[in-house]
Write a structure and sequence with these properties.
146 residues, alpha+beta, two-stranded antiparallel ribbon
Length: 146
């Protein structure tokens, strides 16, 4: 129940800001897109890896950080292959119709696409029916104009 209340508060706060500004299409903090983590590393190292401050690339109104120049080169060549779905916002949140922040260690790759989640607890729920949640999230994300 505590998790649900916490998630609802996050939703309310992030949704109001999100609805006002479409430049928030990518989950970004002061550390960069997806909190400064290297999106390519999820594919190449099978884990979240923090990006370096001096290896960055601007894409989709956000600054993406990378752990190596090789990863940045891969991302530049095919950003849609490596960028997380739903702008890096919580995939489970989008299955419910709203953006919610994420934690880097709550992730999965499904059919070659990266999905991030609010936290490990939410990821457990996500994992139970991820194919169903992806269909819902895709629909909701599109309906919001992305």
């Amino acid at each position: 129940m505590k998790l649900l209340v916490k998630l609802l508060l996050t939703i309310i706060l992030s949704t109001s800001a999100f609805a006002q500004d479409k430049t928030k299409a990518v989950f970004t903090t002061e550390k960069g897109a997806i909190n400064g983590f290297d999106p390519v590393a999820y594919f190449t190292e099978s884990k979240p890896v923090i990006g370096k401050k001096d290896i960055t690339y601007k894409w989709n109104n956000a600054t993406w950080h990378f752990s190596s120049k090789e990863n940045m080169t891969l991302f530049k060549a095919k950003p849609n292959k490596y960028a997380p779905q739903y702008g890096g916002w919580c995939a489970f949140g989008w299955s419910r119709g709203y953006p919610a922040k994420i934690e880097a260690d709550a992730w999965s790759i499904v059919n070659g696409k990266l999905y991030l989640n609010y936290n490990k607890e939410v990821q457990e729920t996500w994992s139970e029916k991820k194919e169903e949640f992806i269909i819902k999230a895709d629909k909701n994300y599109k309906e919001k104009g992305f």
